[in-house]
From TrEMBL:
Gene Ontology CC terms: checkpoint clamp complex; cytosol; nucleolus; site of double-strand break
UniProt lineage: Eukaryota, Metazoa, Spiralia, Lophotrochozoa, Annelida
DNA damage listed as a keyword: yes
Organism annotation: Paralvinella palmiformis
Record-given protein name: Checkpoint protein
Keywords: Cytoplasm, DNA damage, Nucleus
Main function: Component of the 9-1-1 cell-cycle checkpoint response complex that plays a major role in DNA repair. The 9-1-1 complex is recruited to DNA lesion upon damage by the RAD17-replication factor C (RFC) clamp loader complex. Acts then as a sliding clamp platform on DNA for several proteins involved in long-patch base excision repair (LP-BER).
Superkingdom as given in the UniProt entry: Eukaryota
Listed Gene3D superfamilies: 3.70.10.10
Any Pfam family the entry gives: Hus1
Subcellular location per the Swiss-Prot or TrEMBL entry: Cytoplasm, Cytosol; Nucleus
Length: 285
C-alpha cells in the first residue's frame, strides 16, 4: 500500500485544515478511507449506545496538486486507516503559511501518516517541519463495517435556519436540559424545544425552504405523502447538537435537516468540494 499527496495552494491548505477541525470537534477517533478520487472521514458508533455516525467526503482533486495511491490490490484499490483526527489538526496548524504540505503513508516503528510541512524561509534553504502520526491499518476483512450509511426514508426534509443563530439558541438551552426536541413541517416551520421540571422553552423558525430530492423513488416518500402542516419530531442529545453546530469550520452553503419521526435526525452539509453527513439517533422519553 502506498499513499502520497501534496498540497501547494495556501487556500487549499487552509480549507483542508478547517475540514479536519470540524471532524476533530465531532470525533476522538475516526477512519480515514483513501481512494483514487476521494478521501473519506468516517465515524460509526454503536447506535444501541446512543452513538452517532459521520460520513465526510472530500474530492481529492479540489485539494491536492499531487496525489498518488495504491491500495491492497487492483480489485481493492483503497486504504483504510484508524486515527485521532486531532493529531491531523495539530500537524496542519503548523502549515497555515506553508509553501507546501506533503502527506505520505510511511513505515517507521509502526505505520504512520507523515506530514512534511515546508515553511517559507528568508534564506535559500527551505525549512521543513515533520510530523509522524501513528495510524492503525484496518484489514480488508473489516471494510464492510465502513460502508456509506443509507439515506434515511425521512418524514420531513428542510433547510436549517442560520447556523450561528441556531447555535446561540442551543447554547442557551443546553443549561436547562440534556435533550432537545427538533420538529418541522412542510410549511417551512421548525421548532426547537427543551423541557425541564420548572420550565419549557421553545424557539420557532418560519419561512424555511426545503430541498427537492432526486434519486430512488422511495427517498422522501413519506415526506411527500404527509400533511404539510403536520410536525415531525425527534428528541436528541443537546450537547451533541451543540458540538455539531459549534464545530462547523467549512462554511457550508446549505445545511439540510432530515427527520425520521421519533427515530433519527440526519444533518447534511453541502459545500462545493466537501459534503458531510451527521446522523443522530433519537432518544426515547
Amino acid at each position: 500500500m502506498r499513499f502520497r499527496g501534496k498540497l501547494i495552494d495556501i487556500g487549499c491548505i487552509q480549507h483542508f485544515t478547517r475540514v479536519l477541525i470540524t471532524i476533530a470537534k465531532l470525533a476522538k477517533m475516526c477512519t480515514l478511507r483513501i481512494t483514487p478520487n476521494k478521501l473519506y472521514f468516517i465515524l460509526s458508533e454503536r447506535v444501541a449506545n446512543g452513538g452517532v455516525s459521520i460520513w465526510c467526503e472530500l474530492m481529492q482533486g479540489h485539494f491536492f496538486n499531487e496525489y498518488n495511491m495504491e491500495g491492497v490490490n487492483e480489485e481493492a484499490n483503497e486504504i483504510f486507516l484508524e486515527l485521532p483526527p486531532e493529531n491531523l489538526v495539530r500537524a496542519m496548524k503548523t502549515a497555515q503559511s506553508a509553501k507546501s504540505v506533503k502527506i505520505k503513508l510511511t513505515k517507521k516503528h509502526s505505520p504512520c501518516l507523515t506530514f512534511e510541512v515546508e515553511q517559507p524561509s528568508l534564506s535559500s534553504h527551505s525549512r521543513t517541519v515533520v510530523h509522524d502520526i501513528p495510524v492503525h491499518i484496518i484489514p480488508r476483512r473489516l471494510w464492510d463495517e465502513f460502508d456509506e450509511p443509507e439515506m434515511p426514508d425521512f418524514d420531513i426534509s428542510i433547510y436549517m435556519p442560520n447556523a450561528r443563530v441556531l447555535r446561540n439558541v442551543v447554547d442557551r438551552m443546553k443549561n436547562l436540559s440534556n435533550f432537545v426536541s427538533i420538529s418541522a413541517n412542510q410549511n417551512g416551520a421548525m421548532r426547537v424545544k427543551v423541557e425541564a421540571d420548572q420550565v419549557t422553552v421553545e424557539t420557532h423558525f418560519k419561512d424555511l425552504e426545503y430541498p427537492t430530492w432526486s434519486g430512488p423513488s422511495d427517498i422522501g416518500q413519506r415526506s411527500r405523502n404527509r400533511d404539510p402542516a403536520e410536525f415531525v419530531e425527534a428528541r436528541i442529545d443537546i450537547r451533541r447538537l451543540a458540538q455539531f453546530l459549534s464545530g462547523q469550520q467549512v462554511n457550508p452553503s446549505k445545511i439540510i435537516c432530515n427527520i425520521v419521526d421519533t427515530r433519527v435526525v440526519h444533518f447534511f452539509l453541502l459545500h462545493d468540494d466537501v459534503s458531510l453527513q451527521y446522523f443522530m439517533p433519537a432518544i426515547s422519553l
